[in-house]
Design brief:
Keywords: Cytoplasm, Hydrolase, Metal-binding, mRNA processing, Nucleus, Zinc. By secondary structure, the protein is of the alpha/beta class. The protein contains eight helices and seven strands, in the order H-E-E-H-E-H-E-H-E-H-H-E-E-H-H.
């Protein structure tokens, strides 16, 4: 298996970094076997999701009709075109399950991307925002960390994880975007603006709103 370097993990999976390139860390488990096969991939001329699908279908040993479970850890969520390609890929392999963890949402205000994620979830794919346990898991299993540094993964601000999780709920529930991300080019700061409407307060479970630490409830709408 190929491990990535610590600096690669830091720049690709930091939720505050708006890096254009994407990185995919993935695990494959066949049938009832407890053995997990791990590898990684990055963008080439195609998105990492398409590269994975091409690699998976081109290797002879992947053609056997055996069930398997796949877990992706993506630095960016799939765009609408990749979401469509993933659904088509899974439809050709009915014995396959896919769980996707993402550190950031790709152009999340774009309606096609939002619909693409909804279609992906409705097709049976699990999509979640990476939290502390997922970051820790990736660091231990995919990163070439120095000896004795297995616990020293970059401690990203939890608030960013919660903000993306909140926005993902908006996408799933077909609500308007509530998270706007800004980049100040002079000092390379990534900022956010949270704009909640009446429909957000009425539809999103309170514990998800409160988890950001930026919202106080109850809010009464008349």
């Amino acid at each position: 298996r190929r491990r990535i370097e610590p600096w690669e993990f830091e720049v690709f999976f930091d939720p505050r970094e708006l890096r254009k390139e994407a990185c995919l860390l993935y695990e494959i488990q066949w049938g009832t076997s407890h053995k997990i096969w791990r590898n990684s991939g990055k963008n080439t001329t195609k998105h990492v999701e398409l590269n994975f699908i091409e690699k998976f279908t081109s290797e002879r040993r992947f053609c056997a009709p055996v069930s398997c479970s796949i877990t992706w850890f993506l630095s960016w969520s799939p765009c609408w075109e990749c979401s469509k390609a993933i659904r088509e890929f899974l439809s050709r392999h009915p014995g396959m399950t896919l769980v996707i963890y993402v550190s950031r949402l790709f152009w999340h205000v774009d309606q096609q991307n939002r619909q693409g994620l909804r279609d992906l979830i409705n097709s049976g794919v699990t999509v979640q925002v990476m939290r502390v346990p997922e970051y820790d898991h990736c660091w231990r299993n995919f990163v070439n960390y120095p000896p004795g540094k297995e616990d020293h993964w970059p401690r990203y601000p939890v608030v960013w994880m919660m903000l993306y999780a909140l926005e993902l709920h908006c996408i799933i529930l077909s609500l308007p975007p509530c998270l706007k991300i800004l980049r100040r080019c002079q000092n390379q700061l990534t900022l956010f603006r949270l704009t909640l409407q009446k429909c957000h307060y009425q539809t999103i479970p309170p514990h998800i709103l409160l988890a950001t630490g930026l919202i106080q409830l109850p809010v009464t709408w008349r």
